[in-house]
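Lab notes, practical 5.
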Amino acid sequence: MSTTTTSVNVDARISATRTPLATIKRQVKADWVEITPTMATALLDANSHNRRLREAVADGYARDMTADRWDVNGETIKICVDGRLIDGQHRLEAIEITGIAAVCLLVTGLPIEAQKTTDIGARRSYADTLRWQDVKNGDAVSAIVRRVTLWNAGYRTKTGSYKVTDPEMDATFAAVPGIVEAADFGVTHAKGAGIPPAQLGFAYWLLAGIDAEPANWFMQRIADGVGLQLGHPVLVFRERVRRERDALRGRGTVSADLILALLIKAWNAYRAGGSISKLQLPTGGLSTETFPLPR
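Output from the prediction step:
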């Protein structure tokens, strides 16, 4: 074993940043602050070099604050040494929108270079949170919870105008029954149905909430196609989805909105009785106003 010793610069080993530790201790300050709407406006006025504001994100935070779902989690509002806002614009925008003060950890005096490495890490997803809670089929459950939240908020198609927040998803998961079971159905039968697990699971949840027993039979036939006569709505649906998939020739996937709309049309035809020859979608495409609703 070598007994050679090496002289080491302690400060260099403590920090890998370009700013010396002693300077950071002297310059950077952190404190818990109740940020009022007036303070938020002042901080946003110093937001001259930040990324473009995403209104859907700020609106989501505002909904959480209004619904008293905004929790303290240690995330910081960051201000650099020259007074510019580095991080926190969406939270501050939500405070300004709602007029509700929020307690935040305010960090000031950061080096200007800090903005280059802010918000570039991997975001923790809601599926990650569910796995931490030992929820089975976390990816499928997360996707279904998000779609249920949007559906219950009146959004029928997938949309970027309403960004579902994690607290909203928590509230949905806690209050809405049947999501875990729907995810299990989706994961189990996705291959037979030729539909991704979360899409199949959401459809199962949606129809089971109307009439559980016929919904279970209907969704089982969506998955296996067993015992269906010519003209049965499920058979017509399965054939339509196959044609849509074949038309893509491996270049992409069939739209989730299209699959759900066709499935709901098939369900409504099944409930009405009789046979059909095709599934007709609204002229002009699918929107929240034209999207079919299950009966």
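Observations recorded by the TA: Residues 19-112 form a domain with the Conserved hypothetical protein from pyrococcus furiosus pfu- 392566-001, ParB domain fold (CATH 3.90.1530). DSSP finds 13 helices and four strands in the chain.
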